[in-house]
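During the reporting period, our protein records have gained a structure token line. One record among many is quoted in full directly below:
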Amino acid sequence: MIVIYTADVERGTTNPELDMDSLKFKVTEAFLSEFDNEEAWKNISSKISVGEDISAEETMQLIIYPLAFKERESKQDAIRQVIELAKGIKDDKKMIFVLKCLMVFSDKVIREDDARHIKEVLMMTKVEKLIYDEAEENVATRIAKNLLKTGSEVDYVSENTGLSKDIVIQLVADIAKEKEQ
């Protein structure tokens, strides 16, 4: 088991071993007081700012970044920085992962308004996806209608637009109604 200590805890101030005579339990300790947060921040933020993907290790460094500060206000500032930087992560799943983990890892120090801001960013991501999906479907529908009007077969239209056959058949009926009007 590994125990990660925030920057407030220095090496030598903890006991990694629990000895209960018949049972001995030893943990691996990691001290964020030894984490080079400035170098990690420069590296990660430069990658994200140019749209480059970050590795799994860099993702974890970004998540724990706020905990690498000793003072509460510095942690708060770092939480806000990570939220803003995470918005620039191109991979939505990774961005969502970073924000959710940030809330969990910084639970003891995160301000309510920052937690609410993370929630808003996560919700906006879902709303943006819904809007994008709807726009994509509208484009596919317009293309399908154009193909059908030029005499293309239902199977061909379905295969080339990604719309289901049922939707394409409904479009055929819609086009027929439009012609009647």
User: Anything to note?
Assistant: The mean pLDDT is 88.
